[in-house]
Fold these 2 entries.
Entry 1:
Amino acid sequence: MIEVKNLVKKYGTHLAVDHLDFQLEPGRIYGFLGPNGAGKSTTMNIMTGYLGATEGEVVIDGHDILKEPEEAKKHIGYLPELPPLYMDMTVQEYLEFAAELKEIPRKERENAVGQVMEITKLKDVEYRLIRNLSKGYRQRVGLAQAILGFPDIIILDEPTVGLDPKQIIEIRELIRDMAKEHTVILSSHILAEVREVCDYIMIISRGKLVASDTPDNLEHLMAGQNSLEIETKAEPEEVRRILRGITGIEKLELKRTAEHTTYAKIEMGTAASEGEQDIRESIFLAFAEAGCPLLMLKTSKASLEEVFMELTQGEEAAADAGDL
Ligand code: ADP
Ligand code: MG
């Protein structure tokens, strides 16, 4: 288990991590989601013991990363934003070297290196110099180094940046595979990516945790913006009249889609969506009573994309300005 308590990081006067508090349970895939400059890399660098915090604590399986870095680091594999690869080493030499640094006993090293090369599909470039590898292969070398020795916790900073779509799919599969036995934390500024691979998403904006939940629950978080779509055999004016009998409608958009057929988008207020009666029943009955058949009725949840936009609005502009 990982506990992050009241974590603060200041670069000069710039507050990059602003009182972060969270706990991570074993065996899940967590996603740090946030635009560039949100503080994801800084947080990961502190969690892995590569950077000191201004305030707060990080406790990894009971070990304080600042007070017992050696012990805590044994539980972590880390792929930093810029993996420290040695260009003049071959893949095999580099991973042997990484195994030595991780204090994997000499007689187990060859085996351990072979195993991670197998998993990350590096066998065919084993004897190539890292300088001659493509970006995708270099990323795999970084990943192989992170999972070497199979630490309980694997932390990956933007693991798919710079990869082509095929490589991205492979790395995602690899991450899902690893999560069967490890806790994985990855960062990304791409919403689709965290939604696809993570069980749990933490949205970071300007160094603050602004939301943390499962992808499904984050979508429900926007319950106040529940909306419905219907299509009915009626004229727009009739639809408007029928819907007047329903309480809680905040916004209504009508569009005639064919002769005597209307499409309506109905946005409900928060109170209405929290009420006990399913709004779809009321709508169905109201149209039935008026003798207008419903051709279509569906609820549309606010997408996580919208949650993200809402929660991190203006972030990028502010972060960019901060960089100057
Ligand atoms: P992310 O990984 O989410 O893109 P970072 O953690 O890299 O964000 O950066 C968070 C903020 O801290 C940014 O505004 C960035 O410019 C600033 N920052 C990061 N590293 C340093 C540094 N070494 N010195 C000064 N400011 C930094
Ligand atoms: Mg970063």
Entry 2:
Amino acid sequence: MTLKFHNTLTGRVDEFVSQTTNKVLIYSCGPTVYDSLHIGNWASYIYWDTLVRILMANNYEITRVINITDVGHLTSDADDGEDKLEKGAKREGKTSWEIAKIYTNDFIIGMEKFGMIKPQYIAKATDYIPDQINLIRKLKDKGYTYQINDGIYFDTSKFPTYADFAHIDINAQRAGARIEFNPEKRNSSDFALWKFTPTDTKRDMEWVTPGDLVDYGLSIIDYSKLQSHSSIEPNPHNPKSIIHNLPTMGFPGWHLECSAIAMNILGNTLDIHTGGIDHIPVHHTNEIAQSEAATGVRFSNYWLHNNFLKVDGTKISKSLGNGYTISDLHEKNFSPLDFRMFILQGHYKSEGNFTFDALTSAKNRLHNWRNIAAFRHQTHDTIQNDEEKNQTNKIIPSYATPQAIIEAIDNDLGTPEALKIIDDTFSDILSTQLKNVNQQSLMQIIETIDNLLGLQLIESTPDISDDNKRVIIERNTARDQKDWAKADELRNQLLGSGIILRDSDSQSVWEYK
Ligand code: AMP
Ligand code: ZN
């Protein structure tokens, strides 16, 4: 079975072939750090954690970058509106720098709580300002940029394949965008590479706009179309041009950071780029345009996009208060791993629907899996001879090998299928006498689950204490001797230590409460 993914670039499920054998370069668009991440954001990072894990299982050496958007992301993806970081700063009475620090930490700690594999690089946009400026310089030298009153923009009409990635109907977009279309922009799809700090404003996050990037009074714009823009004055020598106030300070546009960071760390062509489907028509389309315009080579060979998670069938939104965070889940007694199990039950290309009932089912499923993982403490490899060995091997059927689980995930991150294979295997184990379960095979399956799905079964299922083991032996003796009163008393004693005994005719198995 080969490793394959749905590639937005081709619109197909493609076999994965990296540029360098056994090495893979991954860039994942990271969070905008102005608030705690909500479960929709976390869903996205759980899917990409599975991607990393399946690549590792296929023996790839991974170099992965996640960026931190700590500057430049405005509330509208069309380069308008309030700066998200400044919004967060106002909300909490802090500076944008403080807000960025708080929520960057929140993201890093969150990734640990979800048991995600750490990327090799976590790169903040504010640490890569010179790279972003250099990229603008390259684009300017190649004639892709122009300057208007509020910044330096990328002229998307100069990049002929601009609409291809997202199959955008540019004409329809132009017609639809007329109302909010900044009239100074040459095309509605043009996007800011650098925004000037308005002259009467001081931003928390701003940098000197390099003089060579700015054209003073050179932008030729039809002034007659700009009457409503009071800040724009006509050049008395040429009424069709404008004189700009000296734009000394500024900040990068949101899309720029991803291209600059990715190319600085990973090189001009990535193997895999990830993000949510919301990024296809604007953010990733713009990343491709500015990167490929600058380098002349393909920016990423594979583009993976996760579908969105809804809550109770509704879009996640601040106003509805349904953007639950890790703390919200914790307050309701759900762990990050319960949520991870919930997300793994769905496929990353399908829209997800979160409900607390569904999360409860996922939590129960994880609890059951943990109890089966704990069987490894109760079974022993007592294989005596070949005949017994053959018999024992039958107990975990052949489809439940680690390879079967890997193959399900190889197939475009098919975690729902992998979970089904595991459930089938576990129900076989449950209907088998413990003494007949092959401890080694069981251990292999649990390790595979932990490696590929990150559910931390081994870590979360410690053996019970020797004292409790003695109580179980004593209780089984009492049961054999039909001393029911004593057997019940000892059973309750174990319950007090968080251990449940499940009795059948032939055996008694302990489980966690
Ligand atoms: P942001 O901080 O808004 O840039 O989002 C961080 C990541 O979460 C991006 O890759 C988004 O595409 C993704 N994302 C945002 N909302 C959702 C959602 N409801 N479901 C899945 N992914 C989401
Ligand atoms: Zn990005």
